[in-house]
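Quick entry, no commentary yet.
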Amino acid sequence: MNKYKFVPLLCLLVLDSKSIYAGDKNNFNLSLEKLSRISLDSPATLTSLSEKDIPSSITTISHQQIQETSARSLDELLEFHVPGYQRHAQAFNTYQVSNRGFVGNGQFLLLVNGKRMSEHSQHSSIMERDLTALGDIDEIKVIRGSAAAIYGHGALNMVISIKTMNSRTFEGTKMKFSAGVTEEFLNGELSFGYKWKADQGVYLFAGLTDYQGAKLENSPVFFGVSGTKFQGRAISATNTTGYAISNDYQNAGDKLAIKLHGQLDIGDFSVWARYTRGGKRFATRIDSYEQLNSSITQQYEVAYEQATINLDYKKFFNKHWMTDFSVGYDMTEGLRRQGSTFLNDSFDETYREDQILAKLLIRNEQFEHQSFAMGAEFSYERFGLEPFRVSDAPVRYASFFLRFSEIDQGKRIEPWSAITVSGLFEHQWKVTDSVSFLTNLRIDARDHIELMYSPRFGVTYDLGSNDTFNFIISRSNKIPDAPLIRKQTIQGGDEFTPTTNDTVELKWNRNWERNISTLFSIYGQQREFTDWNSTKLQETQIGIARQWGLEFELSYHGEKLDISLSHQFNKLIDLKLNDPDTISIVSSQPNGFGDDLNILHNNISKLNIRYQFTRQLSGLITYVRYWGSPGSAGFHDFTNDRFAGGNSNNPSVRAIDNIDPYAFSESADYLQASINWNILKNTKIGIHGNYLLGFIDDNYNKRGFSHNGYYRTHAPAFNFQLSHKF
């Protein structure tokens, strides 16, 4: 336990500091209630800081935007509104997310009211994202880029921070119903808020969704390439596969998706509880269907359940000192069911993990030019537990399947635990009226993992009301899933060395006029890359990747018209492999094919236009363009070349006659439109269209879901909403 000795040392150093800052002088005149509402709830810093000085690019989505959008899930909402946010269907898993060149649900964190909801067993940040019931969400803030200095390992390139409604932000009773046509679903929500004193009240929310999705005839799957398979069967790029694949975005197990949330506020105390159940069926690689019995072609799905309870205590002792303490417990169960390519049968991968998480933060804002915050976290996690509800199958992990029996001789997996102790520190120094520094350091000590350091240093140069420049340097860490750590521990291996990502970013924010602003960011990253090792049947570190990117945002806010435009460009510089003979599914660039990352779209553009026609009537148009995936095309060329000699066990195409341009290089274009009408004072209706360009050509709505060119087209569809507040 020697690695934990840094915690008292860190606290001693912080307590000895004489550098304390009050932030904005105007804060001195605020009441304690108003003081508690300033940037303490910013997910990117521990101390209060004006928005333009925060050393991160942040997207904020308000409750009104959430209610007016055509999005049928949190994933769709973020894809529509967050610059650079990309959503990918996967061949052996549910939807994955990418941003700034990082692909995968383990590359970012999902928070609810500041509490980490991501798990460490297998699927990481899959909770919440597929749910249609969004009425309990007050606001979403998305940090684009590393936030490990605040949240520790896993916050490599993004943090999604959800803030829920409570008795202070919602009073009354509200009912909402929505239904989808073509992509079929029924959704019902009930919200209730009651406040019996100014600082005391209760908030309750319930949401149920029956999501059948779009039928295969409306959302077909295509091969993407033409040629002859090793088995000798000819396939055509533009023909549908013909297999009995599940509906697009259909609920796992045909079960209702559920979200329940309740919060009690009593002065400085608040306690909230949350339960979610969700998951989706997905279409896997077509070659997997060819090797399976037709009776199990519907058995590809990922499901989860999560129950959480959390207690928060915030105390402002005066205008300068405050403390924030929280302690919570959550239980997460997961299931991945798929037809096996190893066995002529289907199998379930199941798991359950329990976590107790406690956090203490102390903040001081006293002197004019400096402030600091310090804190500590303690996490106790229990793995290998039998799930209660998601499945009656024995515990199995993807990273353990067919390997755990070698370790335990076929015996039941015995539960195990892990402890993480963390220290946090932040110091803010306003050197002059124009220049300020922000320094962060987080240290995480976790069982069987080398000590993790996550520093961040930011410099802000403020030229007044028009221009602000931020320069940020940071490091983030990533550790393997808990089963992989356990496997190495059982086998007597050394402590894991976490992989790191180093980022340098320069950001420029300019206010051109009262209602026009732009943000321009350029960043470079060097990260230690992990990839699937087919020999060890697990992810291992394969080398170091360098990449760079650009982000641009433009916002216009008028009396009736609001416009937001964004574009992100990301480019792989090189991927240097530890072993030159390594074959990586992440990129074929080291093997001489293509020059970028597989799956990733180098360019992505987003446009949102909202117009207020009358006080009662508004309209919203959202357009998203994925500009092609050249890395995927290179990977396919490499795969075809590698197996050109023939391999009966490999499903790749032996001879390519034609590549469907929509499979790799051409763009995907998603267009949504909404009309929202307040027909009465407290009654609203919404008419929403999704993926409308599909009425012109299905290929506008394509989304690739494998490394080999297969893709699915989303069905153009409508959904209708009716809500009333009593």
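second:
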Amino acid sequence: MIRVRLGCESLFPERSVAEVCGTAGEVYREAGGRRTLAFERNGRRFFIKCHRGQGWREICKNLVCLRLPVLGAKTEWRALRRLESLAVPAPRWVAFGQQGRNPATRCSFLVTESLEGTRDLEYWAREIKRHEHRPTAVRAKWALIAQVARLTRVLHENGINHRDYYLCHLRLAAGREEFFRAPETWQVYVMDLHRAQLRLRTPLRWAAKDLAGLLYSCQYGPAGMSLTSRDLVRFLRIYREDWRKSLCTERALWRRVIRRLCRSYRREFSAELVLPPHLRVTGPCRAAEADGKRIPELTDAAALPFSVPVVGSVPLRGELVCERALRVRPGKRLACSGHWNGRPVFIKLFAAGFSGDRRWRRELHALRQLHVRGIPAPRLLHAGAAVGGGRFLVCEYLAASRTLDRAWLQRTEPGRHRALLRDLLVHLGAHHRRGVVPRDPHLGNFACTPDGIVTLDAGDVRLLRAPVARRAARANLALLLAQFPCEADPVGMGLYADYAAASGGETGKLDKLWLAGAIRGARRRRRRKVLRKAFRNCSAVVHRQDRWHRLLCDRTCYRGEMLNLLADPDAYLGHRRVRTLKDGNSSTVAVVQVNGQQVVVKRYNIKGWRHALLRGLRATRAARAWRNAHALLFDGVPTARPLAMLEHRLGPLRRRSYLVTEFVPGPTCLASFGLADDGAVPDQEALYQVSALLRKLHARRLQHGDLKATNIIMASSGPLLVDLDGLRRFRPAWPPQRAIQKDTRRFLANWKHLPDVEGRFRAMLGG
């Protein structure tokens, strides 16, 4: 099938698509089954695009990535016809043809007239930058922004998205004199529409892609034309009639634009983009800023220290020097320690924008209310707005304090845990009596000082005008007790009377029974929340994902050599100086030196194409081990701390995966007990520690799945479990006795050659 525009039949007498595609001319581009060349006929210059078919592999790759594949020249032909009906300047089509039913091998072509006397906008952007201080160049820049905004608005309002919307695909029909002197005579053409999509309405996703591509090519592309906040306002005033309302009601669109801009910059320059101020303060990006640095990236030594100027009266002037990040909430706030005028302080920085201001006002009000109601909290020193955007709170630094999670781990003497828990319950009872409810009462929000327990996070409390109701108070108490290991539940319920006395309530007969069930339910909900956070960007985890990779990394390790390791783990595993622990068919394990410490890198191999098909749509073994390691640490079962997880992907299909954990020195359980000299008596304390570890694992309804003695490391602090990709948790309704017995039998099978060790373990485990 060949179609020729009326009046141009004599220019294309060919009868087949192959004849037209065989036209000789000057080749401009040839890649991906598509060839573009220029030729002349009857003194007129034309361009022809010949499509030879993408192949099933390319088609499947696009479908897997949820994109429509480009099957030929028909897409661009339909787009040019739509633009012609809308009177949008574009190359005029002359001939179109396609042949073949198989979409993978279909041949097609499109002939368009040459846009003589035009140059792409990248050229004119460089000219503007070269003469940016001249009034004529400034007027030309404004006119160019208006023309592009008007063209973009027409495209998106009529359901057309370009999908490759850069300055190099926009051409301007004007000479140099007309460009600087008569911008009203300009005409901007849009070209290269072979990927364009036509709909009744442009989806949010594709509008954001076009806008991000246009902004990237203007700001960071080869043209390098810097845009100010006024330039962006000029664009928005034409692209959206009510641009102020658009910034408030279409925040999802502008967040997507900034997110895609940062992704393009990271892919091109292999670095994180520091957004200029006019992209920070307009509201599309939720990334908080502090003196030009993004809060989500202020987690490594390279980003700290930094300073925030303080403007105010003479006693309040100076600079806040943030030295050490204590907690990062990506896109929301940064908590750190530092100095202000030579005084150690605790600083909280909040993101610029409406949501950041709201959080700042809420925490400022809550902190003042805590002092008014007599709740011990850090003293507020100053609160204000940062010069570079965002707001801050400055509180006194409690030098002689420890958070309760650290205090709990450091108190090993008998009775000290009970005393600490009693003080905390009395402190919580005072909260409830004065109408203060901590929304997330985890141990990091409380500090232990010589004067007693202090509430640290004032922004995470709910203030009431009356004492907390009894049912809500007990639910909040259960949420607090769920932060402790389950072995501490009897101690917490035994101290319920002290809490009731501090809160001003009464104790009932069924209170402890109800509290035990509430603690179990709160612990399950908290476990689910912790495991969800392990797979997203948060204060503890860095999450990066594209169509080829998925990366999860502990935020404290996301720096230096760890970035190089995650960029190419195979280069480290194949190095001859690396100590290899295992090189099997299913996995490869090695010890690598990263950032001055030893880590264990485990690669889960793909055995063949059948194995790749079976594993492609399932969770990788590295992802399961990452999740299970966080679950064990939450439950108080010792294991090696997970540091990073990397998956190689093809869209939704999983391929090879990697897991990085801390290296724990020490022999395996088999080497510690099984390789002893003949007649040697095994260490009774070590035997008891291993059996206690297995009992703790099974008491939490967990099955290891591969309980070999080599998967237990005898560290200096005690035994711990490794190789967790087969770990399984049983729900309360499912009896785990058979799975636990299977685990026990597998563990006892390691000691068939040592009857004495097997007998002692059997007596301790009841196997």
